[in-house]
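R.M. (postdoc): so does anyone remember the format we settled on? I'll just put the structure tokens first.
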């Protein structure tokens, strides 16, 4: 058996802290949409792959009339810093006109991904767009952007786990941690 937490320098957010906070976020989101009429639908859009695990856990706390879809955006290749503009690779299939969109991402960093996706979603004429992120690295923002629902504010460190990857590894860790520096650019992964 491989013990992946051995690859971490430190754990920033434990599994229990994540689950407790997600339950609270679910209540915040339910309260925010509490006045929706029965025919008003919340379209939950997950930015994959990163938001896959956060979305799966969060939506099970939602008591809303909702639909789910995903959008695939890529900005990181195998590196730990963005090497290109975010690129929308796979588009949404839902009709979003008159929907209340709840856009979910794993982490808000420079702000360019969410800015780009919100701009795109606005062209589909939704009623409202709100955003939820598990993590916020607000000190790294280059584009002004604030999420409506935030799990945790974290310092400027490259994190993995709970959906966040390094070269597609570590997404299944139940906690969030900082990868050991010597593992961040192994020659075999480039
Ligand atoms: P932004 O466009 O806000 O700079 O970056 C958002 C995207 O960058 C996230 O969806 C995530 O995929 C990636 N990202 C930003 N910071 C980190 C990090 O610390 N770890 C990992 N694994 N991905 C990150
Ligand atoms: Mg991402």
């Amino acid at each position: 058996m491989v013990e992946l937490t051995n690859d971490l320098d430190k754990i920033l957010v434990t599994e229990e802290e994540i689950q407790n906070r997600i339950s609270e976020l679910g209540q915040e989101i339910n309260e925010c949409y509490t006045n929706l009429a029965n025919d008003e639908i919340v379209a939950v859009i997950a930015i994959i792959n990163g938001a896959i695990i956060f979305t799966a856990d969060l939506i099970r706390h939602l008591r809303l009339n909702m639909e789910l879809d995903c959008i695939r955006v890529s900005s990181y290749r195998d590196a730990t810093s963005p090497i290109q503009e975010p690129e929308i690779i796979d588009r949404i299939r839902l009709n979003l006109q008159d929907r209340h969109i709840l856009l979910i991402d794993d982490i808000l960093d420079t702000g360019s991904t969410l800015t780009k996706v919100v701009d795109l979603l606005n062209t589909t004429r939704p009623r409202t767009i709100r955003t939820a992120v598990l993590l916020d690295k607000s000190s790294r923002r280059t584009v002004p952007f604030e999420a409506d629902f935030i799990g945790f504010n974290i310092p400027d460190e490259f994190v993995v786990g709970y959906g966040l990857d390094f070269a597609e590894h570590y997404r299944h860790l139940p906690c969030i941690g900082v990868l050991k520096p010597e593992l961040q650019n192994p020659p075999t992964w480039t």
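R.M.: ...and that's the designed sequence above, right after the tokens. Also worth knowing: Residues 122 and 129 are 8 Å apart (CA to CA). The chain has one domain: 16-155.
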